[in-house]
Amino acid sequence: MHALRNFLYFSEVHKRLSIPLAGLAAIGFVACSNGDKTAGGGPSGTEAGNAITAQIMVAGEPAAYARVKLTEIESLDALDSEYVQADEKGLVTFDNVSDGVYTLEARHDGMALQKEVPVEGHSVDLGKSDLEKMVSVTGSISGDDNGIVKVRGMAHSAKVENGKFSMDSLPAGPLSLVFIPDQKDHDTSSTYLKLVAGETSTASTFAEESRALLLDDFQDSNYQNRFMPALTWDGGWWYFAFADSNVTPKFVTDDDSHNVTLEVDSSGNIMAHVAATFGDTFKDSNGNTLWPWATIGLELGKSDKSLCNDISSVDTIAFRAKGEGAIVFGLLDETQKPEFQKIAQYEFTLSDKWERTLVPLKEILNPEYSYTCVNQLVWNFKANNDEKTVEIWLDDVELIGGNRLSIWKRW
Predict the structure, then answer these.
(1) Which residues, 6+ apart, have CB-to-CB distance to 365 below 8 Å?
(2) Are strands 355-360 and 316-324 parallel, antiparallel or unpaired?
(3) CA distance 171 to 291
(4) Partners of 283 in the beta sheet?
(5) What is the mean pLDDT of residues 93-102?
(6) Can you give the pLDDT at residue 166?
(7) CB-hemisphere CA count at 13 Å for 252?
(8) Does residue 201 contact residue 166 with C-beta atoms inside 8 Å?
(9) Same CATH fold, 238-408 and 139-226?
């Protein structure tokens, strides 16, 4: 990003929110009706031929008799899981596994692990897999709904009472949570987060399952996107940045943080709204040319750029926008040298009516780069009118297509 950058966060950016808990209930490893097995088994209904083997380790030593389960990665039903027990050397085998993608989960004496295991026509040897400290998750659902939260592909669940839930004994790593409300006329919703070994994480940005890869719709009035809730203040933030010397921002607050405005329409929908008027280009005392610029951006990693997200499986980025002027949408990989960080861009002109813009990622990618490490999405302002003003309302930023959990492979 530019050296001159003003981060305009919500006032809560430096605060950790404490969420009250209610209705503590967590289901961990529930045995199938056929009971435990040693060195064998596989999800029911599979075809013969493939096997998954691993050695479960803890602190460099075999985790003797560790409990291990294998679940289809999209499953929300504990009956889809098969459980086995490792032998005295921590060795475990699942036989007769059909092609597909599975989650292998193990636990032993307060430690746990998870592994994504693709099976494609041959057996898979995971080698040595190390257990880490277990993780807890607390969170809330918008409103005061009751129901149940389930972990996709792991067969953990927790009751939701008055919109609150808590879940423990989880393995570190990426997690997909699905909320199933008691009310039959309410849709299921989901969220994603990365769990850090030994820490408690918070989940709150649930979105309708039909929009499983929704980055942000601003309905939680939080300026952190829903792919980064586990990192709290240290990543995933929206910002508004501009050249202090020759750009006048509009629709920002007057406090020290200069937050961009969130507006609520008559239907209760929340959206971002900001504008900037460009001044003249001039040279400073050192002879450097100072160009006017302004950007709305969204971090897809940590604020210190040490983490990025893999969106190579995503087909399209979509968002709703209206306003005045033109926008150059771009994707940044900040592991590259500064002059090569913009790996793709797409220009469009704003309309005075809401329009849903679809950005085809493969068509705009610089062929020298890839989408395996994207740090930021940016909407760069481009004044194309006499007033040299760009004004934008922005809402519903979505990733379309792709593998939900593959986004966190670089974590």
Answers:
(1) 343, 344, 371
(2) antiparallel
(3) 49
(4) 289
(5) 92
(6) 96
(7) 24
(8) no
(9) no
